[in-house]
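Long-time lurker. I teach an intro course on protein structure, and each term I like to show students one example going from raw sequence to a predicted 3D structure in token notation. This year I'd like something fresh instead of my usual example. Would anyone be willing to generate the tokens for the chain below so I can use it in lecture? Attribution to the forum is fine with me.
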Amino acid sequence: METPPDQKPPDHAYPDHAYPDHWEADVVLRDGGTARIRPITTDDAERLVSFYEQVSDESKYYRFFAPYPRLSAKDVHRFTHHDQVDRVGLAVTVGGEFIATVRYDRIDDRGRPASAPADEAEVAFLVQDAHQGRGIASALLEHIAAVARERGIRRFAAEVLPANAKMIKVFRDAGYTQKRSFEDGSVRLTLDLEPTAESLAVQRGREQRAEARSVQRLLAPRSVAVVGTGRAPGGVGRTVLRNLLGAGFTGRTYAVNHAFEEDRTEIDGVPAVRSVGRIGEPVDLAVLAVPAERVPEAVADCGEHGVRGLVVLSAGYAESGPGGRERQRALVRQARSYGMRIIGPNAFGIINTADAVRLNASLAPEPPERGRIGLFTQSGAIGIALLSGLYRRGAGLSSFVSAGNRADVSGNDILQYWYEDPDTDVALLYLESIGNPRKFTRLARRTAAVKPVVVVKGARHSGSAPPGHAVPVTRIPDATVSALMRQAGVIRVDTVTELVDAGLLLAYQPLPAGPRVAILGNSESLGLLTYDACLTEGLRPLRPRDLTTAATPADFRVALADALTDDACDAVVVTAIPHVGETGTLDPTDGGALGTALREAASRTPSKPVAVVHVEIVGLPEALSPPAGAPAAQTAPDTGPAAGPPTAAASGDGAGHAVGPGGATPAVPPGPGGGVPQDSRSHDSREQDSRSHDGRTQGAVSRIPAYPAAERAVRALAEAVRYARWRREAGRPGKVPETIDDAIDQGGAAALIERLLGEDADPRGTRLAPADAHELLALYGVPVRPTLPAPDPDSAALAAAGLGYPVALKTTAPHLRHRADLGGVRLDLADEAQLRLAYRELTEALGGPDELKPVVQAMVPRGVDTVVRAAIDAAAGAVLSFGLAGAPSELLGDLAHRLVPATDRDAADLIRSIRTAPLLFGWRGSAPVDTPALEELLLRVSRLVDDHPEIVSVTLEPVVVATRGLSVLDAGVRLAPPPARDDLGPRRLPSY
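-- Reply from a regular --
Happy to contribute to a lecture. Here you go:
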């Protein structure tokens, strides 16, 4: 039990410490609202007293184990004066006022106040009753634990009354290693603050639910206010209002403009008011369409009257220069201070097509039909193009978010929402920047395990974030970013056209079981083009079946049915040109009849994907879509044991089962926190039990995507094949073999790194001397072949005698390093005479010994020269790279990349992913090299950089891989003070 504050001993004399502003953080709470966590300061006395007055007597009793109606002046002083080391207090604020507090006091083994090296602290929480149940105490525990670890505290002790079940649950569910005992009528809990796999999983699970809920509040509001609605037709605000009404928004709509006349009561049939405060009812979402200079006033009006989220269409922020960037930061700070999240600024808007919502809070004049595709874009212009392309091709959306400058809500938040959104089967994203690549990779991998994630990345080669995107800039090349995305299961495409092409196939067709493709059609030439495209994309096409130009729709139906039932194929591409009748004229009904025939054949075997390539056949794309009212197919088959997202019942978030784009019964809308009543499910929700093993409704009629070019259809199909293979492999995750632990001295390496870095380490990093680098690598079972300096011929001869002949003579001058083609390397020198001759020829041709810096090294078995690298990017994390040494990697960029830590599966994939991989596996009759030894080397390097964040780069070049074993001939290592890991700390929203 904590002693009541007025009975505590007087404060000790603590030294002053600078205000720890890095402890400040904005967090998303369980209900989707935001709050700010910050240290309590001496200026918070009035806030603390006001906060305490609003806490119930019961909560006060639970906190102090005795009636404690008010705080004395001494209490207030103690709770607002902290040394930020042995005594720390944090507060949670909304609107500048306290809603919760936590503090710790360092104690010794007898429970008395102490200083370091004591490593235990007593912790206590107090949450305002009106805000209990929002996950505040859980978030506070994460942050106060991180602070304590930073200050050298390893354990928390807490005493809780048995009746305080909520607080006991906070500690129990945190995932830390803990002990419980019952003493003197209270429960004593001791928590080990070292993060565990369970505590990290708990933290990320809470993060996912909170961020998904925050997006759900934006996309499914019960009421919307358009702030800045013009008095006359036209203008941004009036356009948004018109689109809201045109889409049939199911909630309440309000028009807000401070310039409205006092006697105006409505506009376009909705209530018109001069401010949000005059609405008189709760407002969930406000769309701001006012000039940038008036946005702060509008945000204050919204925040003070309980608005839960904002879509800011206004421009004039970071995209306009430094002044706008500061306005953008101020906007985010202001909105978060009221617990609101923001889409924008400079946004195009949001759309939710669910029948229960029907929200079009955007500038898009033609809202998309309801469908199974989720679309996120960071560009309004690209958003318009994508919406238009999907609309023309008859595809529907579940939701659309155009985030503009993405100052707050980003693609990561939308992925959190889509992960468990039953209305979304495919996630499409256009990204120009990735604010937190580590988190994006983690979320994308988890989402891709249950539904496809397709990304097109803009601004790939500019080297900086686009105007308006105030995010950290990653230094890793775009090719590396692409490789890391694919490792996470993300389908990376190059253009927005490919984004739509892939999205249509993935949304409306099942995933292929393999790469075998049947091709059939009425044009031999179009079939051959498709065949060539399949080979280019790495697929395995069967011989095209030519139905001849006389083929009828019935012929197509029979041929497609035969192909789909053939066990030798995994997918079918149908090619078609217009049917020409005997009179030489085109049949105007050809498209409709052909589409109907193809859908009929495909519906009989719905387990294989079908794509259609056609040349100017009028009406065919429309005919390939199911008629209105037809049952829609679920299109994300189970391709492996990867687990799906939690169901609505399991997660506690209410959600009705959603149906496809065929115009079926509307889903039951999710409530603010409750589930869907069992008897209120839609007909399609009750039909869930009749789905086949691959997730598709039995007998369902799905859309067959049509493409105007063979290359586009095949590229989309190839992406589906690769994704399906990743899904299958994701269900069988790799591991790190136990044999890797052999010859690893993690403690010795840590001690060596600490000694080499020293107390005044250069933050820019230090390149280790060769001897130090070799010593460090040896501690992880990576021996480097010794090289001996040869400043003159006699030294060379002495070195060779010690190493044993045959030897190699090499220069180490930077401009000749690893350049055997320039004559700086002489191999297989069998005796001293050959060595001295080579030394003379080398120095005469390339320069003196002082310039060349020659070395002697023993010859190793012949093999393939490779390069292994690991580098730390502050934003993306540690990246392991592999390629062949020399021109393949340096000139052609033929390198493969994986995130660290790598598994045995990653290592095997890494060496097989480069284009020149055949050279390792016996190309043109050569002997295959020892790839298991190479895989083990990759795993050891991965383990080294994962265990020691001070290692910022490792380069092994060349690594000669022979038929048995390998030899590392040269190595370089750089050390630097370890960078901060924002992905391992407590939950927090980014602050740019």
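Some talking points for your students: The chain has 29 helices and 39 strands. The radius of gyration is 33 Å.
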